[in-house]
Structures are given as C-alpha cells and as structure tokens.
Amino acid sequence: MKERLYEILNEEKIHEIIPFLKELSIEERKTLVPSIKKMDREISKIVMTKNSYHTAGSVNQHSIIDIASFVCMDKKNFGKNYWSLFRNAEQTDQILEWGCPEWFSDFINESVEAEFTAFSYKDILGWTEKGYVQPKPELLGHHLSNYPAELDRHPETLNTHFWYLCEYPSKSLPFRKEWFPIVQKLITEKKIERKRFLKECLLASNRNFNKNVTGWFMDAFTSLKPTEEELSELQDELLAGLASSQSKAVNTILSHLKKIVGVHDFKNEEFSHYLPNLLSSEVKTVVVSSLVLTEKIFQRKKIDPEMLGMALSTAFVSKDDGIQSKAAKIILKYIPASENMRGALSHYSDNILTNVRPLLIKYIEETQPELVAIASEKLSLTTGENAVKVLHNFEDLMFYLPVAIDDPYSQHCDIALTGFIRFAGDVNAESVKLIEPVFLKACKTIAKWEVPYLNVLLCNAIINYGLDLLEKYPIQLKNLEKIYHKTKEEEAARESYSNYQKKLGPIENVGADCPARIAFKELAIYANEKIKSGDKIPLLFPVTHAPCWISPVTLVERLESYQNNNIEPHHLDIQLALQRCALDNTSEAIIEAEKRLKGECKELLLFFFGKNDKPEGKFEHPSWWMTAGITRSPETVFEEFSSFGYDDIPVEFFSGAYKWKTIDNKKNSYYPVELKIVIPKYHLAKRKEPLFVEYFIAEQKELIEIPALMLCFPNTPANALAKVIKHCLFFSGIAEVYERSLVLNTANALYQIKKPLDEIGYLFLGTIFLDSDKTIRGTAAEIWLEHVSSQMMDNVWLGRVIGLHEKLEWAPVKRLTDIMQHHMLNVSKNHNIALEELISNILLQMEAPVTNLKKILEIYHEVLALNHSEAHQEIIVKLNSWKENSSLKKICSLLLKK
Hints:
By secondary structure, this protein is an all-alpha fold. 57% of the residues lie in helices and 2% in strands. The protein is built from 46 helices and four strands. A two-stranded antiparallel sheet has the order 1-2. Strands 3-4 form a two-stranded antiparallel ribbon. Helix 43 packs antiparallel against helix 44 (853-867). The radius of gyration is 35 Å and the shape is flat. The model has no long low-confidence stretch (mean pLDDT 91). Residues 385-650 form the DUF7824 domain. Pfam families: DUF6493, DUF7824, DUF7825. Residues 2-285 form the DUF6493 domain. InterPro entries: ARM-type_fold, DUF6493, DUF7824, DUF7825. Residues 655-897 form the DUF7825 domain.
C-alpha cells in the first residue's frame, strides 16, 4: 500500500488516488496515516531560489495528499484545513459519495472559527440535503452572512436561516455591501418581518459582536426609520441596549429614545437605573447625549425629580468642564436641594470643578477641601524590597531555571547564571534526575522558530550541561538522549533555510547575526567555560536588585574575589557590571573600595563612585575607564581618556545629546507633522578593547529586544530611547502592533529604572504622552506621578517637548488633556503644583491657537484655582491675543481675571 501511494505521488497520477483509496478497508486506511504525514512533510519543505521560494511538491502532489489525508485520517489528524480539499467542489462531492468521514459534520460545523473556507452557504445546504452535515444555527448564520445571493431558492433561508444570521453573524457581514439593500427590499416585499428584524438589531447591542458587526445592526435599525409607535413598543430592547459595551450602540439607542421621551408610557424609572453607568462612560458623546435626554425628560414629563437627580450626580465623575456645567444647570433648574440630593453630590464633591462649584452652592460646600502635600521621599535603587532571590543549592537551581527560561530578559536569567556557576558541580546520582524536566523545557523552547536570543543562549547552556551529565549518569538520564535527538532533527530540517541561525551544539557555534548578540554570546561562552571548569568565582554583571541594578558594595566584593585569586575580569563582564551599578548612594562602597581593593581596580572604583572627580592612576584597561566615565558622567569629556583611541565613535553615543526637532512634513498629508531625531551611523570597529556600548549602538538586527537591552544601560538609557523614537515615534498615529508593543515595553522599562531623566528621556516621555495607545499614555502618566512624588521631574523640560510637538499639532491635544484630567489632576498638592508648571511650559511654546487649545486652557484654569495661583506673565500676553478667537474668548477672559 505504501509503495503504491508513493508511486501515485511521485508520478503525479491524481486520477488514480480515489480508485486506490476506494479499494482499501478502514483499517488499511488508518495504517497509511504515518506515511501520508511523512509524504506531506516532504512535499511541504521550502525550496529557496535566487528571487523567491516554493514548496518541494507540485500542485498535483499536494492535491493527492489532501485527498488521502481527508479519506484516511481522523478529525484530529486532519486538523483544521478548511481550504485545500474544497477548492475542487466536484472532486469533493465524488469523495463524499463513497467515503464521507463520520467526523465530517462536526468538522464543517467548526468552520465558523476559520479565517477562510473554500465552501459556502450553498455547499452546506447541498451537504445537508444529502445527509453529510447536520448544521448548527451558528454554521448557517455565519455562512449565510457571506452569501447574499439566491435567498429565494430555499424556503428555509428566509424563514429560519436569516434569523440565525442575526444571532450568529460572520465578522465579514458589515463588509458585504449587498446586505443593506437586500434587507430593505425583503422587508418591503414582506418576505421578512419588519418588527422582528428591528428587535434583532437592538438585541445585537448585547451579543458580544465586534464593533463593526454591532455597528452594522445599528445602522440597519436607523436606516429603516422606525416610527414613534415602533420605538415605543421596543422600549425594553432599547433600554437593555444602553448596557452595551459598544458606544456606537449606546449613542444610536439614545438618539432614538429622544424621539419618544414625550410619549405617555415612556419608562422613566427604568431609564434612571441605566443613567449612572451612562454618565460614568469614558466616551464623551455618550455622556452628553445622556444629559440631553435627561433634560428632555424633565421638560416633558411630570416625575419625581430625585429619581433622576440622584443618578444625575454621577456626571461629576467626569472632570470635563462642559459636562459638569451642563449637569449642574439641570440640577439647579429641576431638582430641589434635598438631603438625599446633597448626600448624593457629596460623594463627588472633591471632583467638582472650581468654576462649577458656585452653581451648586445650595447642594455642596462652596469651598473645595484642601489637598495635602505628599511628603516626597528620594527613591533608593537598592533596598531590601527589590533585592533579588538568592539560590542556596543545586535543587534551588533546577527549580529556578524554568523561571529564567520563561523570562530571559529579566533578573531571573542573572539569578540562574549565578546559581549555575555556584552549584553546577554539586550534583549526585539522586539529584541529577531534576535536570530532565528542565532539559525538556529548554529543548522545547529552543526548538521554536522565534526565540529571544538570551533564551537561545540560556537553553543552549542547559542542554550542553544536560548532555555532559548524561555521559556521567547514563542510567538516570536515559530519556535525555531521546529528547535531544528529536530537537536535533527539527533543527536539521531548518538548517536548509539561508536565514536560519544555529542554536544547538557547542555554544561557540550558536548564530549571532548582529553586534549586540555577539556581545551576549561572548559573555555566554565565558560563563559556560566557568561552569565547565568548576570556577566558582562569581560573574560581575548579574544584578543584585530588580530590575537591573548592582549594589556598589557587592561590586566591590566581587572585584575583591578576582583580586584575591589573581584573575583578570573579562572585559565585557566588568563593563556590563559598571553600567548596571546603582550610583545613587556610594558612600559605603567608597569606604569598602579603599579598604579591600588595590591598584587599578581601586582607582577605577574611587573615580566611578565619585570620590575622585578626575580619573587617576594607571590606565591599563582603557575600556573599563571609558565605560566608568560614560556611566558616571555621560556629558563630561575627560581629557585623560583622549589617547584611548575611541575618537571614531560619534560623541552622541557617549553624551546621549541627540539632535531632534518636530517639523511640518509637507510630503505626507495623513501625518503632516514629523518628529525627526538624528542618530549617526556606526559600524563595529575592530579594536583590542571594544566598549560594550559599541555592540549596542551598531546596527541592530531586532529592535524588539531594545527595551530589554536598555536594562543593560540603566544609568544611560538615551541610546535605546533614541532608537525607539526614530523607528516607532516619528508620526503620532502609528498603530502597528509591533511598534505599539515596542514603545509600551520601552516605557515600562523606563518606569522600572526609576532614575532622573535626561534630555532624550524627556523627549521620549513627552512624546508618549501624545501616543495613540491609551495604555502607553497611562504609563507615561505613571512615570510622571512617581517622578513628581520623588522630586525627580523637570516639568520645564517636559513641557517644552510637549509644547513643541503640539505647537505644530503633531497629535490630537485630546490625548494629552484626557490623561491630565483622569490621571494627573488633583492627585496631591505637589502634583497640582507640578501640573501647573507643566501646562505653563506647554503654553509658552504655543503661538497660534491649535485645535482643542480650549481644553488645555480649561485644565490650566482649574489647576490655577486649586493652587490659588495666577497665570504666568508671558502666558497672559498670549491670552490677550488668543481671546480674539471666538471659541477661546470665554476661557481666556476667565484666566485673565485671575
């Protein structure tokens, strides 16, 4: 059988595959499955040519395997191939006539989860008629959505299946433009019931459809122009739709409720139950529409005012001046100042804006409670709270290695490496069994296509260590050989790809396709040699405190170990250690260095820790001194280092002072304003003592690793931030998942570092305050809040960056004002003072009024009132000019009165 199948495949006899399979029994077909899988792997191998690539098999060979797979395999083995076999409908029907698998119906029913299928609603009806498929409502609704044709051909299509479409639509329904006119025609011809369809449209608001599908049903409902009588009859469904998570649904329903607010049976009480959630919405249009509807109810109905009034107080969750003013006017006009109303508003008293408070004098205390100032504490980079875990024995190491594999770009990898060097030799015939699950996890991880580079190095070290133990303990570790053999086979299959980087074998042979990876590979080789030789002197670079810091005292202690054993540190190991050293408190480390160290190491650390203003002593290792100088004082050029031979490296990479500007980009109409930052080109130079930073500033293969690599330079993150700015933040609206993820990870890394920012740090922070991603903007606010609390924030610098961007409208101002209102305003007295300074410096950069400048000025007015301050004199000049603008006249006048 196998030979015959190989013959049909190799000679491409596609006409013979079905007769051949027909002759086989069910058991014979099952025995062919392994052979079919093997043949499929062979014909699916990628063949690279000079300009393209293709699979090893021909079209006919793929068809032969598709047919054999369908007939011989069960559903699990066949997988979710909803495409290849079904392209030839005639051929599929021939197979189903004599060999319809018992799993076929379930298989077709599950196709609603597929991105693409080569069969349609029409095919499903045919298969149902012949008994091959017992269709579920989800299947019929999904596929009918994609088949807006021949609806009169089968009676059940309009009688039953159309209503399944309403309940279980395909995601592509909104993009089938034919459906709108078809539905309107069917309703006109009374082939589908109008009232039932209107009801289904409203029910769609709470069926967890995506926003496009929900929007389609809302548009369909509106396009049918429901009458006042129909809307009144559908009140229950309309009101239930107000709980929808989709703002399009809520806004549509609110607009229709306004049309019937005057009818005698309008359900005021039911509406009041939904009002608090509506007024708490983050979508301004929903809040405004809800207030308008509430006011209409008061105007047209005789109701108990407290019923809606209590709910109306929720509007003061928003810090928007327009919303609060509108809510206050409704309360003032229609709701008495009862105890219940005062109690309801008291919950939001702290949130009510200063210019709105006078309107509500009968309901709340006129003066706002004074915020307390937060006692600022200087953040310490190395405390007991962020000290990393210490491993105590071989068992600890084995249990911890999987943690490091799961998160290689964190302190976990450093902890694991430290433990490896200390305890790799502490193994016996009993404890050695603990390596097997770790070895298996390392093999599974390294076998993936996309593996973070530090994971490759760590897993490679674990695998090689496991293979060494296998030679010593062959009985206990007999499974390791089988695990490794399978992993090696998988890699061998991939090595035919020209871009594949080797991962298995001696660590010296592991691929490294960019300078940063070369540096880490060199460190990995050095660490591996220590593990193999049993050298337990610790590496210098592993962190002692999360996320990336080394205690200066620990650095002294580690260097003392090398000094006592007369061993010279590895040049990259000591540089990385210096780069990661916490320099916020070095007094104790200076005392220890003077006591414990001698020679060059002593002089190096006394300079690095700030005891000596200038470098002194013998400069036997220029790379050590240069790294210490850059890390300690990046803006300083030390004349003593002028002969080291690093003059060919552009000075920006040392100082972090990159040139940047926000420019009007005439070439791009969609993104007319561009942020440009100039990063000099640099190629790794061949030199005796390269700097660690050189490997990082040279061209990178993968930008995605930059946030993690930034933790190698926590004292000087400007080079990393500049790269992310250049590649991901040049326009304000970049919404690609890759760029968004990279910016968010970089922002999180900057938040974790907890150091005062330099100029590029402020450029990055100011720019992400205007990012299109809400989570990224939230992270920017968190950085600001913490830095203000710790007195590390320069709001003049930050305000300048944001002002220069928004002066040219680099991004919508609303992004900034939303984050100010919801995250930065009224946190504490300190933060209000800082926010005033920030907004002042933003406004100082402004010239002509920009879109939504009014909103910034409203927040400025509020924060001045909270701080009992007056507008900056230079801003007063601008306000006198801006008040000529009709939309700014009112707010400018209010600010000029202060």
